[in-house]
Fold:
Amino acid sequence: MKPARCLKASACLFMLLASSLVIPTVAVRAQQPSSLTVQQGASTATGVYVIRNARIVTVSGPLIEQGGILIRNGRIEAIGTVNAPPDAQVIDAGGLTVYPGMIDAGTSLGLVEINSGAPGTVDLAEIGDTNPNAQAITAINPHSAHVGVTRAAGITSVLTLPRGGLISGQAALINLDGTTPREMAVVPSSALVINFPRVVAATGGDFFSPPQPLNINEAISTRDKQVGQLRKLLRDAESYGRAQDAYARDPSLPRPDQSVVLASLVPFVRGERPVIFNADRETDIRAALRFADEMHLGRAIIAGGDDAWKVATLLKERNVPVILTGVLDLPLREDDFYDTLYANAARLQQAGVHFCISTGDTGANVRDLPFHAGMAASFGLPRDEALKAVTLYPAQIMGAADRMGSIEIGKLANLVITDGDLLEARTHVRFLFIGGRQIPLVSRHTELYEQFKSRQYQ
Amino acid sequence: MIRKLAAILLSVSLLGAARASEPPTPQQRVTETLIRNATVLTVSHGTLQNSDILIRAGKIAAIGQNLTARAGARIIDATGRYVMPGIIDCHSHTMVDAINELTYSVTSMARIRDVLNPTDVDLYRELAGGVTTINILHGSGNAIGGQNVVVKIKYGRPLEEFIFPHAPPGIKFALGENPKRTNFPPVPGQPRRYPATRMGVAEVIRDAFTRARDYRKGWEEYRARVTRGEKNLIPPRRDLQLEPLVEVLEGKRFVHAHCYRADEILMLIDVANEFGFKVRTFQHVLEGYKVAREIAAHGAGASTFADFWGYKIEAYDATVYNTAMLARAGVNVSINSDSDERARRLNIDAAKMMRYGDLSEDEALKLITLNPAWQLGIQDIVGSIDVGKDADLAIWDGHPFSVYSHVETTLIDGEVFFDRQQDLARRADVERERARLEQAEPNRAPAQGGGTPPPTPRDKRTAYGHDDDLWDGGDEKR
Structure:
């Protein structure tokens, strides 16, 4: 599974390709990403539901030992003592528990069906180093088998990140329901994804030969050049935005050239939308934070974060959140303690760093999300924090906590109803709502089970 | 060179200094151990509350209440804790320096035993997940791969002590995309290797067993003539490739066959029937659910992933209900890792089978203990908590099927090879030692006045890799 490993490595092969950015000089009408915003909820919501007699883990507020939830127009309309309207479908959840749907903020779900052997199904990484205008939302396959498999495990929303290069593109925050990417979108252009350059002390290498060690000074200089490349591009985008604004105010000015690449960067360099820096090692996290400061990026996010516990004080001070994708990765170094990554989340939490937990997987294994949080909990993260790390915290980090991440009036009705603790492997999901729609708990896996079980049991 | 030597000497002396001040090592040999007042998941005969386990000479000597031990015995208070048999991983590539001998399609002469590295730190990480025995397999690049080895994770001991005594020998077979080499670049300068289709995979195996059958016949004829007293006979030339296959034909070597698709599973059953041998386990076997009846009728076990799927085309027609469907059809099923990472959390992978297919707790426990023990032919030695069996045990701070639990202590043959409290107690010393080593002149980078450039950072190893396809261990271990 070399490809999969490669995809997740923050820098990897693409960084080694010395291709340079070619900015199209043809005047193309810039697509303003904000125009992609859609109103999720109203378009897909159907029906009025009342869940009653449930134990309700609101996550943001107190636990309700027994109560109801009214769902209407795709949203949570009432919580607690709820009278069922005459048109409501009633679900008796006696003995069951309602949780907000889980959110994985570090996936590429929908961009790849089969990593190896089926390149036609892989839309993860564009050619070249800098693709800020590559938008995940344009290529997410709503009919991927991963959608059904993942949501049936109680994960109702994911952030889908493009991969590869220095700037991979724009990530999309989606609900795992909808027949078109736009129906799935909660925030179509949710964040810019940058693989922060790091010192790669080896180069080349393929299936048959290991990479050759590089002179360390060369490796450092390569890294610095890549940072310079990023800096220049972001500054160009600032200038581009100013020039376009000036021209819009005063059409008598010379008309500036249009660029899809630079236009796509404008909201990010202006701090209107977050920038995700993939960085795992301490030096790279610190360098990314310095870079974000230097470029005045208002909303930087670190993703990966294997060494984040070593940078906790600074992360807290700068109020930079971390999407931890490595709880279940093997420790980076041979002499790391066996539980270094298991305990990473607990250490961040103790230091007051804002974080969430993600699988970091491209799709098929996103359903493992609760077990990543569970492992963090068994190594020091309080259980309620582990639950928040896969519900409220990713929603907050992605700026969508007004719509998801907890059970509150007015939020999208993304709800999971279980017969036990949400993070436990033995627990069964009994009912599922996304955007107020009841989702049947079927997937490619249950379909194959149904198709073949009778053959085995005859 | 001299600088390197100096670095090694320095690190050895520092390690020595740190060790001298440590508490007794976890692996100190103790002849008797009493685990007190635990919840005991025996796997073979249910769950016992508030029970003791007495260990003598590495074996489980007694299970019950109010047991007593001789003076000087190690006492482990397991109040509030859970004891289960050490986890057995039926598909591992940990501690190998090479995985695939890819030059031929039949490499039955290659032995994993020859490439073991007992200092691989991933072994310790697996112990910390409660794993005590692993089946180290050759990779899946060849229709007939190399010979496996079953080891106990006696981390810190000489390699000889790792080898599982009396475990039947085995061999790796592989079907489908990997022996076809369809997902891999061609070897530069070489023509494509036969086979390139599943038809060819079948014929490679049939050809090898045809040759092995002839070879065996040659030896039988030779021995018969020796018995008849004939003189001046020339024995057949020994063939190290065919000898292991003769052992398969004679039922003395287990076949562990990597496979995915239902058709290739049926193919191997047909070939096995043609030559009169049994497949001991189908490995991965993600489409096993489609032919569970046939697998059960053949008598093979199935060693599969709990829910790892979709990473290539032959892993796409998968269902997480595979385990349950195979088990319900009467197949002996185990959950394996094929990954140094997943091996650390096989307890959770087993627990998932209570969610997907509603296995009972005991059925799910067997997936990582007694069932893989049977698949490796060591079910009378390990795999459950019974008197007379090896004292390979994992002690958890909660139920091992809870995500909130972790291992406190792992014992093999009654000795402690992992103990969380001792691990925690050592950390300050280790940190100091690391800091000293990093400051030592030979270990400083040239820019800081030292002589050694920093090592190549290791690639990040994520939760969803698997090792079977690797050219060799160097990819992963650098």
In short: DSSP finds 13 helices and 18 strands in chain A. Chain A has a mean pLDDT of 89. Chain A touches chain B through 79 residues (CB under 8 Å).
